[in-house]
Amino acid sequence: AQSVTQPDIHITVSEGASLELRCNYSYGATPYLFWYVQSPGQGLQLLLKYFSGDTLVQGIKGFEAEFKRSQSSFNLRKPSVHWSDAAEYFCAVPSGYALNFGKGTSLLVTP
Amino acid sequence: ETGVTQTPRHLVMGMTNKKSLKCEQHLGHNAMYWYKQSAKKPLELMFVYNFKEQTENNSVPSRFSPECPNSSHLFLHLHTLQPEDSALYLCASSQDGLAGLIADTQYFGPGTRLTVL
User: Fold this and answer.
1) Average pLDDT for residues A66-86, to the nearest whole number?
2) Window A:92-111, CB contacts with B under 8 Å
C-alpha cells in the first residue's frame, strides 16, 4: 500500500520566519499527494494537492508544496509564518477507497 | 449549514452505554467516511460508504456499527465500547467513493471527541 512518512513530530518557528514541513512517500509510480491542516478542535482542511504536471503546487493560506521524484518528497513550505498557522499538518496519499495519512507534524509559532 | 457537520462535538459514555454519532454533509457528495484519530497515531479509516452502500470496513470491531440512510447522512452507532476507543471520530465526504483510486478530495467535519469511561 502507498504510504507517507512525516519525519518531524514537532516543529517550532518564529512568527515571520519561513517554514518547511517534510513528507516522504513510498510508491513506485507518480503518486497523488495531499497536505491537510488541522487546527485545535477542528477537522482537517485541505491545503493543496498534487496530481500531475507542474511540480510546484500552490495552495490556500499562502502555502505551497514541491513534488520531487528524485527525493520521493512532497514538502510543504510557507515563506512567512503567521501565529494562526499553529496547527497539526498531515501529508496523505490515496490508498484503496480513502487516504493514508502520515502521523502529522505539530507546528508551534513563537512571537 | 455548509460543509460537513458532526454531532455531538463531545461525548462521554460508560462502557455499557449505547450512543450514536451523526454526520451530515451539505455538499451534494456521494461518498462518506468515518475515521478514528487517536493520540499519537495516524488517522485510521474505519468505514466507507459510496452511494449509501458500504464499500469498505477496515477490520473495525463490531461494537462500532455504521449506518448510511442516504448520501447526506452517516451514523456511527456505539455499544459496549472500551476505554481504548476514546478518540476523535472524524467524518468526511467526497464527490465519489473513489478517493483512493482517483484522488478524490475529501472534506472533513470537526469531529466528535469521544471519551469512554
Assistant:
1) 95
2) 94-104
Rg (CA), chain A: 13
Residue B39 confidence (pLDDT): 83
Q: Where are the alpha helices (DSSP H) in A59-101?
A: none
Choice among B61-65, B103-107, B108-112 with the minimum mean pLDDT:
B103-107
- Best of B7, B24, B43, B90 to disrupt the A interface (most A CBs within 10 Å) is B43
Helices (H), chain B: 99-102
Give the distance, in angstroms, between the CA of residue A37 and the centroid of all CA atoms in the same chain: 8
Q: How far is CA B29 from the centre of its chain?
A: 15
Question: Do the beta carbons of residue A6 and residue A92 sit within 8 Å?
Answer: no
